[in-house]
């Protein structure tokens, strides 16, 4: 627990359920942030290694995206189940179980010799990540009550989440070129094992406090939504190869629609639903997750396509492509650290919109890449803007997505914000991949590298448009945010600074 005294006007029921004082709260936060870092890193660590992985296990070009999406889909679709399990079974217990599964499946991925073995291991790794992320974030929220401590903790959380994506590309390049692609997965296994031991040693049981309710997990809901998302992403991916009117593509879309309808039906009738639909009306949850979905669709696509441009067009090796992500990671960390101070100065809404528009400007700049460009002239400037804006926006959306939520639903809300980011990323990667493939196929008169470049330019231009739309939709957060005097959920209301939750002068 943070040593910061309770913020004025903090809900009485949160004070009553606050954990006992935690020794070395900074060390506990470091462990929990490391768990999130491992999850974020594993989302992108394979990106630079994909050409080597393809050759090593015999993947097709289309199969490369499934090495990323098998992890992302399992992660995104099961995060809600992981969040609910954290609320019902215990946050620390679920975190430990997730870290164990994550480590074992990452080791199996590194030992895989066939495409199906690799994709199955990546799927299991995503299941482990789905337990880790919501459990760790809800423990952070429990460790730090509303006030300056929580604002700083969310800044750390945003920094490691964004930096994990960039660091994954860097580490993946180093490992692929020096030790070989299996070590991309072995490194994740070792890191998860270290975090597991640190959690056992440093994260106290006093933070556990599971809700004293029967653990009635909604497995039917988890199955229907996961299958629906797999069908949707398969349809989007296959459309780029077979066309939008192909029977398999139409069948996949039809199955996704039926399964999503069935999911809503199941949720309305289950006694303890995976996704209580009423949570979207709590605080800023609904609009924050909508904007996070759009941000995620751009985030995952950026870390997928940028290394491919560097390797397939500019001729960079895995190590060079990985090292090129350092400026992006540094800019992201700066943006995350600046977000609380900017929020105090200009307000949460303006900080969020500024972050989204800065990213959009960077992507518009990146859409000017050329087939005979260089890292310094075509890539460096844009990724500095993108990283800065990403850090600013992610901190704000993470705080908004858990703002105004009842204590009993903290794990669910934590899982939901990660769910929408991951699902947005998986769907966005499928859509952007289809756009890139179509544009490249339509540029057959150009040399191969120039045709590829046209596809990547289309991706970055579309991503900028998505972020511009996200900035416009952010206005919904103003309406959805709870008023401080009526916020009884035990977290900071969005209209105010996460470091100064009662200051009306910083309202959105």
TrEMBL record:
Pfam families: MFS_1. Residues 1-20, 482-508 are annotated as: Disordered. The keyword Iron-sulfur does not apply. Residues 28-482 form the Major facilitator superfamily (MFS) profile domain. It is found in: Cell membrane. InterPro entries: EmrB-like (IPR004638), MFS (IPR011701), MFS_dom (IPR020846), MFS_trans_sf (IPR036259), Sugar_transporter_CS (IPR005829). The keyword Cell membrane applies. SUPFAM superfamilies: MFS general substrate transporter (SSF103473). It is a multi-pass membrane protein. The chain crosses the membrane at residues 26-50, 62-82, 94-113, 119-141, 153-175, 181-203, 215-236, 248-266, 287-309, 321-340, 347-367, 379-402, 423-446, 458-478. Its main location: membrane. Residues 491-508 have a biased composition (Low complexity). It comes from the Bacteria. Keywords: Antibiotic resistance, Cell membrane, Membrane, Transmembrane, Transmembrane helix, Transport. NCBIfam families: efflux_EmrB. PANTHER family: BLR6921 PROTEIN (PTHR42718:SF46), MAJOR FACILITATOR SUPERFAMILY MULTIDRUG TRANSPORTER MFSC (PTHR42718). This is DHA2 family efflux MFS transporter permease subunit.
